[in-house]
Amino acid sequence: MANWKLKDLRDERRRTFLKMCTVASAAVGIERSQLLNFLADEGGYGLAEAAGSTYGRSLIVPSPNGVYAWFQELWPMADMAFKACAGTTVSGLGNLGMTSSYLYTSQRNFGTASTYRGTFTPGKGQPMPSLPGGVKGWAGGDRPFFYGPDAPCFDHANGIPKYPVTALMSGKDETHTEFPTSATVLSGSSTMQAAIASLGASGSSAVVPVLGIDPVKYGRAPGAPDVATVPSSAGMIDLFNSAASQFTLSSTVDQQLFETYYKALVGLRKSSSRSTWVPQMAVTKNAAHIIGLNFASQLTPTSQDLFDFGIQEMVESLGSSSTYLTTGQRAGLEEFTRVLIVVAKAFTLGLSKTAIVALSPGPTSETTFTDPHVTFDSAQNMMQGRNTTKHLGRAIDGFYKYLSQQVDPESPTEKLDQSTVFIAYGDTPHDPLRGATWPDATPNACNWNYVMDPRGNLKNGWFGQCYPMTVNGKNGIGYNPVSGQDDPNKTSDQMSSFSSTAAVFAVAKGDKNKTAEYGTSPNIIPGLINSK
User: Fold this and answer.
1) Residue 512's pLDDT is what?
2) What does the alpha-carbon distance between residue 7 and residue 45 come to, in Å, rounded to a whole number?
3) Statement: residue 284 has pLDDT above 50
């Protein structure tokens, strides 16, 4: 029978109570489906439906101070990587294989002619070209693209992406900027990050709707919640404990309501009657009115997580070879990976919807990871660069594999990976055409974003590109948002609002009307999206 106290909850009190239930059920390990059934029984189906959200989650990875360069090795410029693997000579650049920034070529002493170097797609309607040695072909792409041998969420054995990637020219070169902004301009009223966070918070019962690893420059958007920032993965666990306490102890009335339903929720836990759990459950029931909740055990990376996300392999490889990675590479990769583990667990528990996690930025004087100018200076540096790329891809791959095994806490019939969009952007991707000293400055000051949307709301491949040969006197060119085709008369900076709108559209799960609330309608970018 429904409880009239819960049926009468409205507005802020209802939202507060739902957040209480979310943190309480997460703290004692209750599955989300059990919680929704409980809320339906106690407060009616309307209350249960209010505990969910229509829109998806997102992992946003700002990459400041030059560290964005590493994403080029996962998803390089398609034409540049193809020609580099073929060793093609390009007028004005000499032998492209000797000057490009792609590490996986014979000119970079990578393997033999048959060693796997990545997968190329020519784009819809285009014939498959004769492929260079070690390069596979995938005919299913919308636009040209190239997946490196360590690209995440990809079946490299068969050369088929699990989640195709979209790369959108956007913004401009902002070399050595800690808070790059040009690639995330959405409209006069919104930035991409804030709009996405607003989507995640809309109707959600997450106790921390948007979280970030310092430093974060967030921007604004209608309905965007405050961003909660912490300095590290360990700080993220403390953040959830603190946020849960604030909600459960916010007022006497809420405290009493929480205590009553916390005790009921504990009773739902299958193991609550086991002798090993009885003392602990008794303590938490009696103390629910005066203490917060502790998520350390649920959020702390386990030994299995360290294996699945690649940290164990990295540590063991360093143990067998001190030159496997530099100190800076190991530190940056390990912290980023640990953060992804905590974020994956927080998403699974329904504690958060949007994570803004910088790729462990450091001082620009660190030239092997943060601003990796020396990557191509020696055979050892190149090997360390490939190992860095491998573990970056492994971390993202581990994140999505973990989510693929978890039920979406707001949609019990789906897995969590399907509703989580990945977005990366940075200050400078470094010059994709030259490896020597790997210059910060990009041709025509171009820049771009990467978006991986498991639901496929976006067309995949490159929109605009940086070509090894000039097109209309330029290397870096934009695109036409209506057709999706290259437009040599446009710059990447002129594409920012289109590209940012596409990313928001993906997180909005293809909802055009909701996306348009942030200032730019998806109706002006038909060439980028898959309308339903």
Assistant:
1) 95
2) 10
3) no
Picking from 239-243, 305-309, 378-382, 413-417, which range would have the lowest pLDDT averaged per residue? Answer: 239-243
Give yes or no for residue 125 having a pLDDT over 80: yes
pLDDT at 297: 79
Domain boundary among 259, 291, 323: 291
Residue numbers of the domain that contains 197 = 58-67+158-249+293-458+487-532
Residue appearing with tokens 């403390």 = 238
The alpha-helical segments, DSSP class H, found in 321-472 are 327-348, 379-404
pLDDT at 254 over 80: no
Which of 205, 512, 208, 160 minimizes the C-alpha distance to 354? 208
User: 241 and 294 in contact (C-beta within 8 Å)?
Assistant: yes
CB-count exposure of residue 420 (10 Å: 0-12, 13-18, 19+): buried
210 and 314 assigned to the same domain: yes
At 395, the pLDDT band (50, 70, 90 cuts) reads very high
Q: Which residues, at least 6 apart from 346, have a Cβ–Cβ distance to it below 8 Å?
A: 208, 211, 236, 240, 299, 352, 355
Same domain, 396 and 512: yes
Question: Are 451 and 326 part of one and the same domain?
Answer: yes
Residues 168 and 27 occupy one common structural domain: no
Distances from the Cα of 27 to the Cα of 241, 314, 367, 408, angstroms: 10, 31, 42, 17
Q: What pLDDT shows up at residue 19?
A: 58
* Spatial distance between the Cα atoms of 256 and 389, rounded to a whole number of angstroms: 51
Element (H, E) at 62: strand 57-63
Q: How far is C-alpha 111 from the geometric centre of its chain's CA atoms?
A: 31
- The vertex-202 CA angle with 406 and 396, nearest 5°, equals 40
- Who contacts 322 (Cβ-Cβ below 8 Å, separation ≥6)? none
Mean pLDDT across the chain, nearest whole number?
84
**Residue whose tokens read 């020519």:** 122
The answer on pLDDT for 279 being more than 50 is: no
Nearest Cα neighbor of 168 from 515, 466, 512 is 466
